[in-house]
Amino acid sequence: MHPNSDKATEVKSTLRRLGLSPRKALGQHFLVGDDALVDILEAAQIFGKTVVEIGPGLGALTKKLAEHARKVVAVEIDPLLAAALQKELANFENLLVICADARDVEVEDLVGKEYFKLVANLPYYAAMPILRRFLESSHPPTQAVVMCQREVAMAMVAGPGEMSLLSVAIQLYGHPRIVGIVPSSAFYPSPKVTSTIVHIEVYHKPVLEVQDKGEFFALVRGGFAAPRKQLRNSLSYGLNLSVDTSATMLWKADIDSKRRPQTLTLDEWGQLFGIFSESELLHG
Asked: What is the pLDDT of residue 280?
């Protein structure tokens, strides 16, 4: 018998009792693996802290968080699950369950000005929008421990040579590291992908000081529009510029126009953004 089978049976029983079933459209996969719980708690170090949890589901992790944290704010998009969680864990006075889409929440509405840690079992379809929502907030978490699809996790921690838009989006705000791998058998129902736990140590301020983050990411997104092409061609394609204009911008930034976008460091993206900002090419 698989070590997680008893927990899976327990989850099925709980769902039946509550009259619920996993909603595929919301990417619901309930954690049944104890090893993953331990890894998340050890990485998060939440004793006496304020924690925001995204995607609490049936509360397997929520209960552990509430037992050790000073305060837990659990954000659940499914109103039926949110109501069930509120009822099931009603004895925890330090737990607040909010029914909302984490992609749209105002962080300060959740925790005010308190320092907090983010813990999340991120749905595969919304992992990056949720992370960016919190990391780009004027009041970001001090740390984040998230569980996400393995490919997303590997992109988060990638270095120059393997960078992507996702890598830049995360590493601008913090230092990510892999904590552990979570097999599909650790969930019910089992997803078709392997999950990974990532710890992000959030910087006090972003690595690059950019005046307009929207324009910065427009540049990076344009740069990765055709990642297999040379930068001058990828930028030309992504930003609707002539190849000569792209090559000139790269030359001014002291970046070889024949390089691939995935080889650029964060500092080089910053240099290139400075040149593009001066030229006002990103404004129109």
From this structure: 74
Any alpha helices (H) in the chain, and if so which ranges? 5-18, 34-44, 60-68, 79-88, 107-111, 127-135, 150-157, 165-171, 213-223, 231-239, 243-252, 266-279
For 236, list phi and psi in degrees, rounded to 5.
Answer: -60, -45
Which pLDDT score, from 0 to 100, does residue 284 have?
45
> Where do the domains of the chain lie?
5-202, 213-279
Residue 142 to residue 151: CA distance in whole angstroms: 24
Tell if the pTM clears 0.85, that is, is over it. yes
Contact between residue 54 and residue 102 where contact means Cβ atoms under 8 Å apart = yes
Q: End-to-end alpha-carbon separation of the chain, Å?
A: 61
pLDDT (tens digit per residue) in 210-267: 989 999 999 999 999 999 999 999 999 999 999 999 999 999 999 999 999 999 999 9
Nearest CA among 164, 173, 166, 156 for reference residue 209: 173
Which fold is adopted by the domain 213-279?
Helicase, Ruva Protein; domain 3 (1.10.8)
Q: How far is CA 280 from the centre of its chain?
A: 31
- For residue 63, pLDDT over 70 is answered with yes
Sheet holding 95-99, edge to edge: 95-99, 71-76, 50-54, 117-121, 143-149, 195-202, 174-182
Q: Report the distance separating Cα 187 and Cα 197, nearest Å.
A: 14
Using one digit for the tens of pLDDT, what is the confidence trace for 97-134?
Answer: 999 999 999 999 999 999 999 999 988 889 999 999 99
Q: Strand pairing partners for 32?
A: none
CATH 2.60.120.10 fits 5-202, yes or no: no
Compute the residue count for the chain.
284
C-alpha 260/C-alpha 11 separation (Å) is 47
